[in-house]
Amino acid sequence: MKRRNFIQLSTFAGIGLSLPISGVFSACSNHSEHSLEFKNLVSGLLKDWCDGMIKVQIKNPSNLEEHGALGCPSCSHIHGRCMDAVYPFLYMADVTADKKYLEAAKLVMIWAENNVSQDNGAWTVIPNPKSWKGITIFGAIALAEALYYHGRVLDSQTRKQWTERLAKAGQYIYDTFTIDFTNINYGGTAIYGLDLIGGVLGNEDFKLKSKKMAQQVTGFFTTKDHLLFGECKPDAGKLSAKGLHGVDLGYNVEETLNSLVMYALKNKDEKLLQVVTKSLESHLEFMLPDGAWDNSWGNRMYKWSYWGSRTCDGSQPAFAMMAHINPAFGTAAVKNTELLKQCTSKGLIHGGPHYISAGIPPCVHHTFAHAKPLAVLLDHWKHLPEINKKAALPRTVADGVKHFKDIDVSVFARGDWRGTVSTYDAEYHYKYDYRQATGGSLGILYHSKVGLLCAASMAVYQMVEEYNQQPQPGEDIALTPRIETFKDDEWYTNLFDLTASMESNDQNGVIELLSKVNLKNVAREAVSETAFTFQLKYSCVKDSLQIQVSTNQKIIEPTAFVLPIASPSGEAVEFVDDNEINIIKPEGVVSIKSNVPIKLKNISGSRLFNMVPGIEAVPIEVFFEEDSNELYLTITVN
């Protein structure tokens, strides 16, 4: 970090603080018109979401298993964490004086106490006392913030009951949580949670444990790229075959880094502020120009929803509160909030940009989780630094190729093209089928004129968290661009190759990323009696992107390259001839040409939809021709 920026940060951290972090930003309280536009966006979206949640709230006093819960338009079960909505509901009750919000807040707490509350102070993820209790930290933070900022709207009896319930939850967290007892998002979030709860309750033991964990968390950042690691079961310290840690962008930016920033600011922890500032800057390298988080490579990308992660809170607090250090942080907060609004319909966030066009109902979990950070921003608004989108995001102005060694992922930019290529091999569970983009695959392809062109999905869609994911509608066909063949009805693809290597160069205006990959099945066994080793080369110049696939081996089985192009229903698809296809987008025409005939993978010609990351796509495929060992596709935008 540059010394000037650190001095600024250090001075900022030394400002007198009140509970939990009000007053931190008092020197930055004069907001421009652009900043006020962001406030209007945040407050309008929060109201829309709260009204949307009230519309699906169940009111049936005769059935205590449902009464007060938030019904889910997409899931057949009630999400145990719906009590997290107590904070945004109580915020709205306070600022509007509308009793419907107060009633909604009380109802979600009533449901939680009747269905997921445990004697030891925990809450469970579903109404089953044996289910996961770690989510207690998120409910406890929501309840603590609701009580601290807006408890005045409660009657004395309710406030007393909720405070006592918070004390029980705080004790459970204090007794149970360590920095590494499970994924880092729990221990990391507990740092802020225990400090916050300890402040609300006047419990110094909670705050002391929080401080100890804050000292420990600095060891969970990668050495070269400063990425937060630890999203990796069963052992957060376990390394992959390539020696890489488990990193998930979605959980980091939408959950853990928020808590670390808020704790560090409140407690003037300059060491931690230095660490998280570097980390925020590294993570920001993966934000696309439209405000999306490129988590195509993340080891928990099975919950990637383009704008973030399905059940996390949202990235707004960390980036908005640190916008005085790097104005691009403020841009990130604004752009991501704008994207969330674009994915909102009838008061609920949909889990990707094409849910609405595909007719896929939203999961309510997205909304009650992401409403909380908006309430956080508004509760700290008069103290926040200037927030606008004047400063360019790193990926908006990037040119060239950058390799992130700690995850073996490269991002490239030339002209209007932005892309991500991954050979990352760290898995989440180590026992499930491979999921995220790897094997030299193109995790993201984006064009500044027409937007998203390619986005990776899970290789095989799995309900890794059955209560936190929606079932895949229709046929499960991966959206990740790939080489594939079938032998004896078994699928072989580079998407299952954890040993792929990658190199890159940028000369004479041409960016080249070259990967050597093998075609493997889900058991990581290479296909036999046909070509299995291929070279994948991505060549990017200002006006086009070319994908070249070649092999020195004999191709016996039909082998193809599949290129799903992101395209919502309603966009026209035209075959110019056998070797060229156009997709007509509102902002321009995407043209794909090949040296071999182009086909559509699904016979009907209709769109494919995948839950990760909520994208519809036109599934283009091209096959190697007989006695040919090379094919290519060239993409242009006019």
UniProtKB/TrEMBL annotation:
- Domain named Broad-specificity ulvan lyase N-terminal is located at 46-395
Broad-specificity ulvan lyase C-terminal domain sequence ranges: 401-637
Q: Which domain of life is it from?
A: Bacteria
A Pfam family in this protein?
Ulvan_lyase_C
Q: Signal peptide location in the record?
A: none
* Protein name per the record: Uncharacterized protein
